[in-house]
């Protein structure tokens, strides 16, 4: 593959959205940010409808002057464009049962994450367009960067081109939410899902494991809880390193460190051949992610994630993580520093 195509404002024509009813299912992190950005881009308020159950999110949308529809069937019937911006794990149930049967046969459906489309968990009609417009930012940043007149990184793709004009719609919608200002990267639900799940299931678990084991070794060698917690993350040094990596370069940021540090980091990392880790990562990518094994296993526990207490599998994992010495030590440090942090 190599180089990706990048789409800018000049590639998108907002005119393709004129007179289209644009429905946002969900007014949470992404829903509230994207709907407000889209309205700021000049899409008339009467063309925008927020579909939300009766609760505080709906109240927030009303307070911001949006039209709100609580009845999902009604929202589905009028939608020319539907942004699905509710949590990924509830999308199949809500979309397939309450939206799909009522949606227009040529509607444009927009997802902000590849997962449900890649694993075929959403039911579309053949004449519909299915596009991904996936900001690489949390909702509050999608909103604040747009308000500052700046853009945000975003992936865009057409996954089903039922009308033959899916790309025009995807680009116009990307521009309307502010995603082509900085350049929206042509991607796919496959690429987005692979990268997301690899980060979540391979890269970060190993980073957590490495912090845990470095902590254990240094603790055994006599380091105090306070010194370790501050040295390793509470000083925010790792956050700063990643910030500089984004600004200056992944390796070039090392130049901000001492010579001892630069030498240690470069010689240490180049010495590690990485073959076993590469095989481990490949195993996760092919046998756990792309094979659908993770998706299948996750589907089976999805309903339990709404439960309270220990029967919720996520709560159970949090409980087990509390056995990590790093977590116990951090708790002690935060208690001792209570009021000072
Ligand atoms: P949120 O958790 O913020 O979604 C909250 C919204 O979903 C509320 O409007 C809530 O309304 C509604 N909702 C929750 N459960 C249900 C349900 N069972 N039925 C109907 N509505 C429900 O979601 P995000 O904005 O975080 O995520 C939306 C999409 O954006 C996802 O696909 C996610 O992967 C993607 N994304 C998210 C990012 C982020 O910043 N978090 C970054 C990039 C992409 P109520 O409870 O009132 O019904």
TrEMBL record:
Pfam families per the UniProt record, alphabetical: KARI_C, KARI_N
Official protein name in the record: Acetohydroxy-acid reductoisomerase
Top-level taxon: Eukaryota
Family designation: Belongs to the ketol-acid reductoisomerase family.
Family matches, as InterPro entries: 6-PGluconate_DH-like_C_sf, KARI, KARI_C, KARI_N, NAD(P)-bd_dom_sf
A GO molecular-function annotation: ketol-acid reductoisomerase activity
Residue ranges occupied by any KARI N-terminal Rossmann domain in the UniProt entry: 4-187
This protein's pathway: Amino-acid biosynthesis; L-isoleucine biosynthesis; L-isoleucine from 2-oxobutanoate: step 2/4; Amino-acid biosynthesis; L-valine biosynthesis; L-valine from pyruvate: step 2/4
């Amino acid at each position: 593959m190599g180089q990706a195509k990048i789409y800018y404002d000049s590639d998108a024509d907002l005119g393709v959205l004129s007179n289209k009813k644009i429905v946002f299912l969900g007014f949470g992190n992404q829903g509230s940010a994207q709907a407000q950005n889209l309205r700021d881009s000049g899409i008339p308020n009467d063309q925008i409808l927020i579909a939300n159950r009766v609760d505080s999110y709906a109240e927030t949308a009303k307070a911001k002057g949006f039209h709100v529809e609580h009845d999902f069937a009604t929202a589905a019937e009028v939608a020319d464009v539907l942004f699905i911006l509710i949590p990924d794990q509830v999308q199949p149930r809500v979309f397939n049962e309450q939206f799909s049967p009522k949606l227009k046969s040529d509607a444009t459906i927009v997802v902000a994450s590849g997962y449900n489309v890649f694993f075929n968990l959403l039911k579309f009609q053949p004449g519909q367009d299915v596009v991904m417009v996936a900001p690489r930012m949390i909702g509050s940043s999608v909103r604040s960067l747009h308000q500052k007149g700046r853009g945000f990184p975003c992936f865009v793709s057409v996954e089903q081109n039922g009308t033959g004009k899916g790309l025009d719609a995807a680009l116009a919608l990307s521009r309307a939410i502010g995603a082509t200002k900085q350049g929206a990267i042509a991607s796919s639900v496959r690429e987005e899902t692979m990268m997301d799940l690899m980060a979540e299931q391979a890269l970060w678990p190993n980073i957590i494991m490495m912090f845990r084991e470095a902590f254990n070794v240094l603790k055994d060698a006599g380091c105090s809880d306070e010194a370790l917690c501050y040295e390793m993350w509470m000083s925010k040094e790792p956050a700063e390193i990643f910030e500089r990596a984004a600004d200056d370069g992944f390796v070039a940021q090392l130049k901000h460190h001492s010579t001892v540090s630069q030498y240690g980091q470069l010689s240490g990392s180049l010495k590690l051949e990485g073959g076993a880790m590469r095989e481990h990562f490949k195993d996760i990518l092919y046998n756990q992610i792309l094979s659908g094994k993770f998706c299948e296993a996750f589907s089976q526990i999805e309903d339990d994630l709404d439960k309270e207490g220990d029967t919720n599998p996520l709560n159970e994992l949090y409980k087990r993580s509390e056995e990590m010495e790093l977590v116990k030590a951090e708790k002690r440090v935060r208690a001792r520093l209570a009021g000072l942090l």
